């Protein structure tokens, strides 16, 4: 029988305190009425108000969301295709290069990815703007999507697709009607990952964005370099809040469906 | 035909937006500064032989003459190494505690480890500015407890960079180690104790060796991105903090010296190849052991 | 209904013996290679309409490859496969009038039982008004009427097996392929399901080709059994034929339990031979349709149940040998005695336990006599 020793409890407590205290402080001090961010002067929501009146922040947020939606959708399509090819296509010309190009961006320092894409865009004369950010984000996010999706496809029972073909499906129909619905959770989490990566990216966006396409991380970066500001605290709190709600909801849903699956399995045993 | 399109689309995309840009970086790193403004002479138009003749290793030689670069590489390696070790020291006990926690808690603990990963990287680094600054929370706390009488200078030093890296990359260390420890059969520890091991020696002789692959994977997952890190040294480090990602960024944006920036990138990549290959090999070995 | 039961000896159902009958499937010199590995080695075989044809063999013998070539998931390397007289080499799986029941069942987890069964019909643009009736018919055939709305994970293993069967039969294929269809079921359920499978095959009149490594299953369900090894069919015959008249030691050994006595043949009259098999042992008398020359090496295969065992020396037996009981395997209804002969060879003899345990008199280390008739065994070349 496993038992948590004092050592285990201590390391877990301190570990999670280390992970969460900084964010907790951020959240608390976003409600501070003083502009001096480390001195508590009373509760206030004024910074949220100021944040929402700040045109520059709002437009940066809007651009970021547009870029994230476009690039994560494109990345999901391309990444799923790439995963399908990697898992199912056996040997083809240049396969090693292909899988290398899928895995390399995962470990490539962002500064290099950003620099190389910028040099490409300049070389072909593409004006920097939303389009170039979308292209850049799609490229590195599709690799993450393809890793997520291919880890699901590896355990996918190939005979399901064969059964669909056997029952009269074309290859495309078999994918659309059988494979895709079954791997959908992985595709969705791939999309969410791509969305988050795009939302989060500062370095690559700094290279490939133009003056009219400042994203939220770039905006945050330029104010943060000057020090801690309560508006940024408020913005951080909003972002942390959204993510927390999202992750908790997702884990509750998956927990509930796991419980339901277990109940179904038990019921099936009884009905046998 | 359809299969061809399926392969061709992502393939072409990656060729055009990953491989080609990379070759451009490589080429520019060999170009001369005056010429390295679009369309970067020598260009292919001038013919292949002119292209080869026009390229040289001048930028790389320049990197060796200015010790800024050499020091930046060394210090990047050093910072990445130290912070990886620190992350292991913090992460292993946490992963171990999670693996020994009651089964019904584990999903929640997992979620708590992953949650920060979904929140903005930038904000997580930013959060430490308010903690580590001279009048920050940490100094306020230490002054209040009476442990120190004058504020410590932590922000804008390498220490702050270590803290930042440990904090942001901790999940990458915990998850593979936890995965390895979770698979560990309890009866192995019991068998070791049965054969005369003390608790501690059973841990050293059984648990640690069997989680070796998780430790190696975790270390690489921290070390590789830490080496090229830009945000953390820029926000938390000081002017004395040299990291290659930061140097590249500044070379490009402040000095506008594209060939040198490209040469820095090429060398950074060469340095990264060794740990990446080692990491891949470890993953492959583990995958083979699993099947 | 006249039951074309496989092991009928009156030739009720034996299209393979009728030279005018056209085969439904014809393998013509088919070879399949995977790189250097030859999975199917220039194999020719006919399968007739309404047959229940079993491919039996150890794993890796090529039986699954044969089935997958029929379904269209593997191409032939050379030779051809005909279905109802048509070469099907270039027909993709989704255009073949062949359906397959997968070993894993391959039920679509996101679709209900009803939708799983309707899946193939919908692909064929089956008229909407008739679809419901067809699915209901299939549900009825497989006794799944109550489960149409459930998802595959909400039903038991046996029910899933029946859904897989119903789904593959829904389109009314000319040929149904079953890949280890009962492999995932426990023994008791498997035996029940074997009979159900035979009933359904009879009711629908579909030709079934089943792949299995379970010899009992093949013997129970099939009209003919093909025993395979290393990409070749070693023997094709009715279950009775395979068991009683194996054509090789491999087949005799693969199906059921058998004693093999190696020796040399000496003609002893019309269709009769003496087998010299050991120093200081009287030769064994055996009958054989297969001719053997004087001094030719041969193997006598005798089933344990055809050998009787007694304590006293039998009076007039064609073959009788004395030995010592080495082991007794008590199986409840049967007992198998392992008798060691003076030369060291061990012969298994099986008797039905018609008496209570306490009344039986043979025990370990007892000297005993075993005997069998000249017609009990089969004389084989190899």
Describe this structure in words.
The complex is a heterotrimer of chains A (272), B (291) and C (382). Chain A has 272 residues and is mostly helical. Chain A has a domain at 56-227: Orthogonal Bundle (MetI-like fold), CATH 1.10.3720.10. Helices cover 79% and strands 0% of the residues of chain A. Chain A has helices at 6-29, 46-53, 55-88, 95-107, 110-123, 130-154, 158-166, 171-200, 203-208, 216-224, 230-271. The two termini of chain A are 34 Å apart. Chain B is mostly helical and 291 residues long. Chain B has 2 domains: 1-56, no CATH class; 57-290, MetI-like (MetI-like fold, Orthogonal Bundle). The longest helix of chain B is centred in the first third of the chain and has 34 residues, at 67-100. Chain B starts with a helix and ends with a helix. Mean pLDDT of chain B is 85; it is low at 41-47. Chain C has 2 domains: 15-97 and 173-251, P-loop containing nucleotide triphosphate hydrolases (Rossmann fold); 257-380, OB fold (Dihydrolipoamide Acetyltransferase, E2P) (Beta Barrel). In chain C, strands 6-7-8-3-9-10 form a 6-stranded mixed sheet, with helices on both faces. In chain C, strands 13-12-11-14-20 form a 5-stranded antiparallel sheet. In chain C, strand 11 (259-267) and strand 12 form a beta hairpin. In chain C, helix 2 crosses helix 3 (128-141) and helix 2 (113-123) runs parallel beside helix 4 (157-169). Chain C starts with 24 loop residues before the first strand and ends with a strand.
Topology:
The complex is a heterotrimer of chains A (272), B (291) and C (382).
Chain A: H1 6-29, H2 46-53, H3 55-88, H4 95-107, H5 110-123, H6 130-154, H7 158-166, H8 171-200, H9 203-208, H10 216-224, H11 230-271
Chain B: H1 2-29, H2 48-54, H3 58-65, H4 67-100, H5 103-118, H6 121-132, H7 137-145, H8 158-183, H9 186-194, H10 199-210, H11 212-227, H12 231-235, H13 244-253, H14 258-290
Chain C: E1 25-34, E2 37-47, E3 52-56, H1 63-71, E4 78-83, E5 86-87, E6 98-101, H2 113-123, H3 128-141, H4 157-169, E7 175-179, H5 187-204, E8 207-212, H6 215-221, E9 224-229, E10 232-237, H7 239-244, H8 249-254, E11 259-267, E12 272-276, E13 284-287, E14 297-302, E15 308-310, E16 319-330, E17 334-340, E18 346-352, E19 367-372, E20 378-380
Parallel strand pairs in C: 3-8, 3-9, 6-7, 7-8
Antiparallel strand pairs in C: 1-2, 1-4, 4-5, 9-10, 11-12, 11-14, 12-13, 14-20, 15-19, 16-17, 16-19, 17-18
Helix pairs in contact in C: 2-3, 2-4
């Amino acid at each position: 029988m496993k038992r948590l020793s004092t050592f285990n409890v201590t390391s877990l407590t301190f570990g999670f305190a280390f992970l969460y205290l900084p964010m907790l402080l951020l959240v608390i001090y976003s409600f501070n009425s003083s502009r001096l961010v480390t001195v508590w002067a009373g509760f206030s929501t004024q910074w949220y108000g100021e944040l929402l009146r700040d045109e520059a922040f709002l437009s940066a947020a809007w651009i970021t969301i547009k870029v994230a939606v476009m690039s994560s959708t494109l990345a999901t399509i391309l990444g799923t295709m790439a995963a399908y090819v990697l898992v199912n296509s056996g040997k083809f010309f240049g396969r090693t290069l292909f899988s290398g190009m899928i895995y390399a961006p995962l470990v490539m320092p962002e500064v290099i990815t950003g620099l190389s894409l910028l040099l490409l865009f300049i070389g072909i004369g593409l004006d920097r703007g939303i389009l170039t950010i979308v292209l850049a984000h799609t490229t590195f996010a599709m690799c993450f999507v393809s890793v997520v999706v291919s880890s699901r496809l590896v355990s996918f029972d190939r005979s399901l697709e064969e059964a669909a073909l056997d029952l009269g499906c074309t290859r495309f129909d078999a994918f659309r009607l059988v494979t895709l619905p079954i791997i959908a959770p992985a595709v969705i989490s791939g999309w969410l990952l791509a969305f988050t990566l795009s939302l989060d990216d500062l370095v690559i966006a700094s290279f490939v964005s133009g003056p009219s396409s400042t994203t939220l991380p770039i905006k945050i970066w330029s104010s943060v370099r000057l020090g801690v500001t309560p508006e940024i605290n408020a913005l951080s709190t909003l972002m942390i809040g959204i993510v927390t709600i999202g992750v908790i909801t997702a884990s509750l849903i998956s927990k509930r469906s796991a419980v339901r699956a277990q109940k179904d399995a038990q019921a099936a045993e009884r009905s046998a | 035909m359809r299969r061809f399109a399926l392969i061709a689309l992502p393939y072409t995309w990656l060729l055009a937006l990953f491989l080609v840009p990379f070759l451009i970086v490589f080429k520019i790193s060999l170009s001369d500064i005056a010429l390295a403004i679009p369309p970067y002479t020598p260009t292919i138009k001038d013919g292949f032989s002119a292209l080869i003749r026009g390229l040289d290793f001048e930028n790389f030689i320049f990197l060796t003459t200015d010790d800024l670069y050499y020091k930046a590489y060394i210090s990047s390696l050093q910072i990445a190494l130290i912070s990886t070790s620190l992350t292991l020291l913090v992460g292993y006990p946490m992963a171990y505690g999670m693996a020994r926690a009651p089964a019904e808690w584990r999903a929640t603990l997992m979620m708590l480890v992953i949650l920060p990963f979904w929140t903005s990287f930038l904000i997580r680094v930013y959060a430490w500015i308010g903690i580590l600054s001279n009048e920050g929370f940490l100094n306020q706390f230490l002054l209040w407890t009476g442990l120190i009488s004058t504020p410590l200078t932590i922000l804008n030093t390498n220490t702050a960079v270590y803290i930042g890296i440990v904090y942001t990359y901790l999940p990458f260390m915990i998850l593979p180690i936890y995965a390895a420890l979770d698979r560990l059969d309890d009866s192995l520890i019991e068998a070791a104790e049965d054969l005369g091991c003390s608790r501690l020696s059973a841990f050293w002789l059984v648990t640690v060796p069997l989680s070796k692959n998780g430790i190696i994977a975790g270390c690489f997952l921290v070390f590789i991105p830490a080496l090229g890190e830009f945000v953390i040294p820029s926000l938390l480090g000081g002017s004395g903090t040299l990291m290659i990602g930061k140097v590249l960024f500044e070379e490009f944006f402040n000095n506008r010296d594209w060939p040198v920036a490209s040469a820095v990138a090429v060398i950074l990549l060469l340095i990264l190849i060794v740990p990446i290959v080692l990491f891949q090999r470890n993953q492959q070995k583990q995958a083979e052991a699993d099947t | 209904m006249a039951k074309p039961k496989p092991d009928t000896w009156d030739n009720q159902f034996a299209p393979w013996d009728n030279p005018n009958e056209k085969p439904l499937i014809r393998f013509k010199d088919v070879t399949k290679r995977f790189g250097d590995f030859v999975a199917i080695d220039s194999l020719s075989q006919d399968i007739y309409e309404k047959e229940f044809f079993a491919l039996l063999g150890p794993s890796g013998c090529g039986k699954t490859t044969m089935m997958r070539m029929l379904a269209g998931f593997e191409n032939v390397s050379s030779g051809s496969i005909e279905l109802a007289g048509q070469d099907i080499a270039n027909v993709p799986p989704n255009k073949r009038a062949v359906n397959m029941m997968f070993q894993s069942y391959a039920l679509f987890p996101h679709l209900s039982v009803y939708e799983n069964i309707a899946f193939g019909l919908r692909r064929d643009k089956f008229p909407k008004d008739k679809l419901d009736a067809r699915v209901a018919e299939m549900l009825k055939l497989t006794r799944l009427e109550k489960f149409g709305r459930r998802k595959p994970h909400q039903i038991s293993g046996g029910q899933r097996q029946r859904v897989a069967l119903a789904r593959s039969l829904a389109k009314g294929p000319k040929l149904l392929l079953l890949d280890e269809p009962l492999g995932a079921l426990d023994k008791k359920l498997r035996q029940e399901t074997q009979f159900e499978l035979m009933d359904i095959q009879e009711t629908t009149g579909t030709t079934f080709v089943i792949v299995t490594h379970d010899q009992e299953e093949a013997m129970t369900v099939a009209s003919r059994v093909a025993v395979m090894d290393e990409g070749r069919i070693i023997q094709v015959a009715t279950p009775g034929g395979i068991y009683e008249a194996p054509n090789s030691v491999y087949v005799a050994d693969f199906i059921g339990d058998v004693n093999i006595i190696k020796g040399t043949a000496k003609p002893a009259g019309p269709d009769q031979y003496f087998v010299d098999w050991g120093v200081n042992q009287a030769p064994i008398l055996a009958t054989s349709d297969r001719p053997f020359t004087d001094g030719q090496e041969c193997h006598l295969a005798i089933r344990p149940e055809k050998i009787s065992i007694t304590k006293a020396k039998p009076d007039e037996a064609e073959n009788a040998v004395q030995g010592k009981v080495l082991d007794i395997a008590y199986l409840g209804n049967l007992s198998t005695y392992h008798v060691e002969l003076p030369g060291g060879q061990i012969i298994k003899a099986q008797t039905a336990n018609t008496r209570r345990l306490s009344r039986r008199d043979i025990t370990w280390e007892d000297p005993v006599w075993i005997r069998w008739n000249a017609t009990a065994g089969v004389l084989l070349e190899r």
